Amino acid sequence: MKHNSARRAPTFGEALIPVLFLIAMLSFNVAYVFKEEAIDGSNQIILILSATVAALVAMRTGIRWEELQDGIVRSISAAMSAILILLLIGSLAGTWLLSGIVPAMIYYGLQVLNPTIFLFAACVVCAIVSLATGSSWSTVATVGIALLGIGKALGLSEGVIGGAIISGAYFGDKMSPLSDTTNLAPAMAGTDLFTHIRYMTLTTVPSVSLTLIIFLIIGFTGNPTASGTGIQEVLIALDRAFNINGWLFIVPVIVIGMIIRKVPAIPALLAGTMLGGLFAIIFQPQVLPAVADGQTGITGAYIAVMKAIYTEIQISTENEMVNELLSTGGMAGMLNTIWLIICAMVFGGVMESSGMLQRITQSVVKLARSEGSLIASTAGTSIFFNITASDQYLAIVVPGRMYAETYRERGLKPENLSRTLEDSGTVTSVLVPWNTCGATQASVLGVATLTYAPYCFFCLISPLMTVLFGYLGIKLARFEDGETEDKVPETYIVEKNA
Predict the structure, then answer these.
(1) Number of separate domains in the chain
(2) Which of 75, 280, 463, 470 could form a disulfide with 99 if both were Cys (CB 3.0 to 4.6 A apart)?
């Protein structure tokens, strides 16, 4: 492609214009106007408007629209895997609800809870469900709602209950190969999914261990009013609505087994969705007619499974709290998030192809002279975008684009970057009231963000842990002598997966 001979590099001030516009508009939009409804579409429009501002600034520097368009296409292409996974997450959530898999997880998980270990167990249960499904949002909207009601019945404050639920859910979201952000972070950094997950365990295991210890201490030193009534009501309602049995766990075991054997996330999710539909037909024939609008037989089973995959379904019981628990949006429920990702990638594509991201990076990186300060700068940038740009994906995409080349130039392999993006970008999004994650979880749980945020110990500890590892030089993967970045996508991945 021929470049305009009059093209020049953007100045630092020009590069900041679209970023400041985005920050100002998103902050105003989420904090003052649409609030928790901002994710329904208004944030997406602001991202497009911000991309327009960036394009206008870029054209002033001499770049042609065709170059910007190519950059947008490349940027969206980088997120296509995450988009497909999001759709499959929605379908899996639907069939796993219809089949009774998620209700069975809740049913058996609740039977181990008591006031002393409730917070510890709530965190572990949410971590397991989120790890299996790859979605913190689905976990909070299902298991989280039930646990919140039970915790209140046990006399615990809603803030500390919310902190335990979200800590567990975001641990699973961060570590699950089925998670959109867990796929997005290595894509932005330039490494592969399983290398990224294995490398994240180095900082995540200490973080979640400290979190669980803190919740145990709170449980043993607190004085909740013990009551098993809430638990029994939920168990009875679930038992009456579903055929709860241990055979249902075959599906998550198969999916987890596929993941362990390094089956890619998309086939694993698709297999989990199909098996969920099959188990719904086998084990929950009494549930299918209600979802299929009264249809029975083969036709009714087909309609029920299809609706669970693509649209919202709800299973009704005599317990109102359980009714809120037993609902899911299917693939359709993920469309707003996918729309948001595409719009974010449009903005990122314009910023990158115009050279504005690189210009900002040059100024920030000059302040990061050591490896520790580089990792701290990356973490700080991700948190900054969570606070100002109000979106988790931007907190991963923009710093990922900004720092990828710098990490390689300093001899640090891309998994250092992808780990830092997740340790700081993914988990801190839920702590910001006007961020899409913070607004959503506050709305789902009915607990204000600033009420649960002080107790989200995992989300608070994770960025500190990754910065500590950086400054102490603990487990920083470096390129070996003679190893070049051109070899990373092939020989390094092969070596790690061997």
Answers:
(1) 2
(2) 280
